[in-house]
């Protein structure tokens, strides 16, 4: 589904966090939203999920976004797992809540397939407290993909992982996304993450956004780090954001 945002404005207290923000995300595209702390990245997700009042227009395929009608999946930085539920229960939670705690055979099979693809099928009976950070992150991703969402939003979902685990998480996410492509907002402050996973970039600063093409968009995510121009792209983006975020 194509996401179209026009003149989105959100106020908190006496100030505006987002100021007439406008952008689009192509159907089954990934927009990486970059910005320093306090620039409105998480507020953007809160506005889309109607957790904060906002003005402007937000459309999914031309229809006003509505959590009661659209399947919206969010992967927060803390993963948002229920500690009293098993991995399998966490993965299927959203679907079960929407369907009065019943899944049909196809939905159960799809959830099992997602868990297997993300390498957590053998963890289905465990509880979050018994998992590593990387495992919890994969459970959160499995829960999001198992919903078959209309819009997937990742809010610094990889930020808490160490570099080695993070690199594996990127590969697993990219592979699962390619198997189940969905319109995605990737909220991050990590420039390499944005270039590795995003189709395009939105640079947030002082509540406003500047859209940028990802010069590596035509390259499959797994192959991007091996590109001879990869570090050149990272350096160019770093130079731009450092100048922009310091204004």
TL;DR?
It is built from seven helices and ten strands. With 247 residues, the protein is of the alpha/beta class.
3D structure, described in words:
- The chain is α/β, with parallel strands linked by helices and 247 residues long.
- The protein is 35% helix and 24% strand.
- The protein is globular, with a radius of gyration of 18 Å.
- The chain contains seven helices and ten strands.
- The longest helix is centred in the last third of the chain and has 17 residues, at 163-179.
- The protein has helices at 41-48, 87-98, 105-117, 133-146, 163-179, 191-197, 230-245, and strands at residues 3-12, 15-25, 30-34, 55-60, 63-64, 72-75, 151-155, 184-188, 200-205, 208-213.
Structure keywords:
alpha/beta, globular, four-stranded antiparallel β-sheet, 247 residues, 10 strands
Strand content: 15-25%
How many helical stretches? 7
- What is the overall shape? globular
Overall strand count: 10
Structural class: alpha/beta
**Nearest-integer average pLDDT:** 90
Helices and strands, with pairings:
Elements (H helix, E strand, L loop, with lengths): L2 E10 L2 E11 L4 E5 L6 H8 L6 E6 L2 E2 L7 E4 L11 H12 L6 H13 L15 H14 L4 E5 L7 H17 L4 E5 L2 H7 L2 E6 L2 E6 L16 H16 L2
Parallel strand pairs: 3-8, 3-9, 6-7, 7-8
Antiparallel strand pairs: 1-2, 1-4, 4-5, 9-10
């Amino acid at each position: 589904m194509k996401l179209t945002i026009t003149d989105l404005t959100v106020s908190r207290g006496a100030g505006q966090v987002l100021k007439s923000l406008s952008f689009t995300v192509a159907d089954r595209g990934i927009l990486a939203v970059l910005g320093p702390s306090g620039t409105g990245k998480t507020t953007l997700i809160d506005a889309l999920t109607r957790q904060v009042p906002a003005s402007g227009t937000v459309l999914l395929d031309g229809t006003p976004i509505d959590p009661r009608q659209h399947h919206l999946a969010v992967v927060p930085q803390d993963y948002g797992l229920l500690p009293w539920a098993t991995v399998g229960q966490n993965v299927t939670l959203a679907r079960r809540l929407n369907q009065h705690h019943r899944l049909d055979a196809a939905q159960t099979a799809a959830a099992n397939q997602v868990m297997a693809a993300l390498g957590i099928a053998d963890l289905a009976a465990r509880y979050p407290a018994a998992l590593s950070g990387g495992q919890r992150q994969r459970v959160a991703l499995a829960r999001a993909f198992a919903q078959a969402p209309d819009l997937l939003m990742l809010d610094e979902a990889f930020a808490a992982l160490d570099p080695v685990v993070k690199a594996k998480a990127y590969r697993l996410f990219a592979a699962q996304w390619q198997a189940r492509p969905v319109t995605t907002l990737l909220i991050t402050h990590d420039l390499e993450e944005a270039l590795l996973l995003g189709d395009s970039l939105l640079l947030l600063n002082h509540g406003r956004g500047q859209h940028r093409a990802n010069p590596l968009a035509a390259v499959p995510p797994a192959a991007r780090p091996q590109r001879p121009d990869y570090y050149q792209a990272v350096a160019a983006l770093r130079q731009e954001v450092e100048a922009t975020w310091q204004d």
